[in-house]
User: Which sequence fits this backbone?
C-alpha cells in the first residue's frame, strides 16, 4: 500500500483519526501480527497496573466503559484526546473519547503519547518493531506509514527504547483493538523539549 503525505489534505487512506494522549494472532488477520523471532513485538508493561491482565476481564471492562460513555456527536472528529492513566482512574473518560469514533472503520490509528521514562528529546519517536502486544493480542504497526513519515520529515525517527517502559501509548492500544480489530497502529512518543 502506498501512502502519500500532503500538507494540503489528510492522508485519507492511511489514517482517519489520531488518538492524542494527554500528560494520551494471526498474520492472516489484518491488524494482527504473528510472533516471529525476527519481528520485534513490544511486550506490555500495563497489565495488572493500568488495565486487566486477563483477556476476558479486559474485554468486559472495555465493553462496560463504552456502554456508559457519552453518546457520539453527529460529526465524526478528526482526532480524539484520551487520558493515559490506569483504567480505574481515567478509563471512563478515555471511553467517552473513543465512543466518538466507535462504529467506524479505520485502516490505521496513530497514537501520540508523551514521554515519562527517558531523557528529554526533540524528535518524534516511532516504535521500530512490528507490533504492540496486549492481553487482546498483538496490534500490527503500520510500517508503510511509518516509512512514509520518516521520508517526509527528519523529525520522525525510529526509537524503540523510548517505547520500552512508556505507558502513554500502550494504554490506548486495548481500546483500539476492541473497537477496530482490523486496524493497524502507529505508536508515536513525542519529545517534550
Assistant:
Amino acid at each position: 500500500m502506498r501512502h502519500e503525505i500532503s500538507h494540503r489534505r489528510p492522508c485519507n487512506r492511511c489514517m482517519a483519526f489520531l488518538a492524542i494522549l494527554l500528560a494520551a494472532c494471526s498474520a492472516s488477520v489484518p491488524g494482527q501480527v504473528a510472533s516471529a523471532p525476527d519481528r520485534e513485538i513490544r511486550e506490555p508493561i500495563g497489565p495488572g497496573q493500568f488495565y486487566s491482565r486477563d483477556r476476558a476481564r479486559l474485554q468486559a471492562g472495555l465493553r462496560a466503559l463504552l456502554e456508559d460513555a457519552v453518546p457520539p456527536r453527529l460529526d465524526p472528529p478528526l482526532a480524539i484526546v484520551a487520558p493515559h492513566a490506569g483504567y480505574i482512574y481515567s478509563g471512563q473518560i478515555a471511553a467517552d473519547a473513543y465512543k466518538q469514533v466507535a462504529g467506524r472503520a479505520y485502516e490505521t490509528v496513530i497514537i501520540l503519547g508523551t514521554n515519562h521514562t527517558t531523557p528529554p528529546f526533540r524528535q518524534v519517536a516511532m516504535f521500530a518493531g512490528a507490533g504492540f502486544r496486549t492481553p487482546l493480542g498483538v496490534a500490527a504497526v503500520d510500517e508503510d506509514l511509518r516509512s512514509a513519515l520518516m521520508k517526509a520529515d527528519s523529525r520522525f525517527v525510529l526509537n524503540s527504547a523510548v517505547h520500552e517502559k512508556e505507558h502513554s501509548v500502550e494504554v490506548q492500544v486495548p481500546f483500539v483493538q476492541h473497537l477496530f480489530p482490523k486496524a493497524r497502529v502507529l505508536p508515536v512518543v513525542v519529545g517534550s523539549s
